[in-house]
Amino acid sequence: MHARMDHVTEYGEPTPPHAHAPHPGTDGYDNLPQFPARFPLPFRRTIRRQELHQIVPLAETTIYAMEQRGEFPRRFALTARCVVWDLEEVEAWVDARKQASRSGDAAKSTGPDVRQRKSRPVRNASAR
Hints:
The protein has 128 residues and is α+β, with helices and mostly antiparallel strands.
């Protein structure tokens, strides 16, 4: 048999086994303590590589290089063979990139320097 832990309300009444916190705008919401003891704090979700690539469509090498430079949230190991990213950190990074892009603060690439090509070199326009 499993031992059941009963929680008691502030009035000494037992709470139902699957009690939930009241939703905003309902009775009792304003009276909730900021960090209630009987309700677990929300967990932080982690994502694996496949889900990360659905959110951030960059190549793995690009993500790795950005992590090394401190420009992208760092992965961490859950086990020896499983690495994950914190979803909240990734979403914050995406939001920051979106804001920088919209405000014009994002670094814009001018494209590759075609003068450095080894094959198909660009002809000097003045030599024509």
